[in-house]
Amino acid sequence: MLVLGVETSCDETALAIVEDGRKVHANKVLSQIAKHKDWGGVIPELASRLHLEAINDLMAELFKDCDYQIEDIDAIAVSSGPGLVGSLMVGANFAKVLAWIYGKDLIEVNHLHGHVCANFIDSDLEPPLLCMLASGGHTQIIEMQSYTKMNILAETVDDAAGEAFDKVARLMGLPYPGGPHLDKLASSCEAEVPAEYKFPVAMPKSLNFSFSGLKTAVLRVKEKIGDEVWERDKVVIAKSFQQTVAQTFYRKTLAASEETGITKIVLAGGVSANSAVRAIFHDKFGGEGFELVVPSLKYCTDNAAMVASAGYFKRSDTSEFSFEVYSRVKTASVSK
Ligand SMILES: Nc1ncnc2c1ncn2[C@@H]1O[C@H](COP(=O)(O)OP(=O)(O)OP(=O)(O)O)[C@@H](O)[C@H]1O
Ligand SMILES: [Mg+2]
Description:
The structure is a single chain. The chain is of the alpha/beta class. It is built from nine helices and ten strands. A hairpin with a 3-residue loop joins strand 2 (12-19) and strand 3 (23-31). The chain has two domains: 2-119 and 301-314, Nucleotidyltransferase, domain 5 (2-Layer Sandwich), CATH 3.30.420; 125-293, 2-Layer Sandwich (Nucleotidyltransferase, domain 5). The longest helix has 49 residues, at 212-260. The chain starts with a strand and ends in a 22-residue tail after the last helix. The protein has helices at 33-36, 44-64, 85-102, 111-117, 161-171, 178-187, 212-260, 275-285, 305-314, and strands spanning 2-7, 12-19, 23-31, 75-81, 105-110, 129-134, 139-144, 150-155, 264-268, 291-293. A five-stranded mixed sheet has the order 3-2-1-4-5, sandwiched between helices. Strands 8-7-6-9-10 form a five-stranded mixed sheet, sandwiched between helices. Helix content is 42%, strand content 18%. Residues 111, 115, 135, 302 line the site of magnesium ion.
């Protein structure tokens, strides 16, 4: 079954063609980052306009890249939320019109389910599994007993991990979005983190996450040591911050695994591209007693291949033309 995926939830216009949820035939991602950079974040109105301007040409490019025509597609899957409502509407209306004109099934996809499904691409992974999802707007541990039912075991009580990365990177004078830049800076540090720059791993009693305290702790260090020492030491501070986030992900995921008995672990979302996060998961879950799958780097951040994959696993006999887009997570379950 060939699914065309459509993704416009934030600042990437993305389209992909995926067979049976696992084999990618074409994948196009057009990032708007350069257009938002000067504001230090995504401007919603600008994002939706840029999606609108880009999506038709991107589709032409997508089909140029593979041997298929739109007629060969069996269904169209589109992110309906969570995300920026104006941006989501562009993708949703694009997908609805295409599906209506060409008589294709239309599948509404929860964008976060898409992030989880990035792990099914190029793998033979099967549920049950635990997903540590960390993106720009979300930080969750999700239990998947099937391909479609998402049981959210943990969430962040304040900042998302990606948001914390972006804010700390900004303190360090790195460009937006700061996560990958901070990763690069931290990875260039060979020194051990000295005691005065070590941050505690916040472990609230529940499985939930909290990153606001860590972000503030970095700010306090900056205020305490002053600009000159900060400039000298920010590389090792970046390393310490990154290691603390990675440790937190690991400890919480381990606790969730012990609680559920699930030993199949996957990562998802933009922060799962982080080198320290990937390293600790490989180190701790890559050996005996666990099975680890991590998405390839290009499927960590927003893309449409993951949406097409989620659409395939969620497929049903009825098209879903009446759905509306939404900004926040509305339900823990993605199944009908
Ligand atoms: N190597 C990296 N290390 C740390 N963070 C990273 C890395 N690469 C990307 N990120 C972060 O990932 C986030 C973007 O991820 P993603 O595209 O999954 O999020 P989003 O789509 O904006 O949010 P959501 O999926 O919650 O709506 C940004 O905060 C970015 O800084
Ligand atoms: Mg995303």
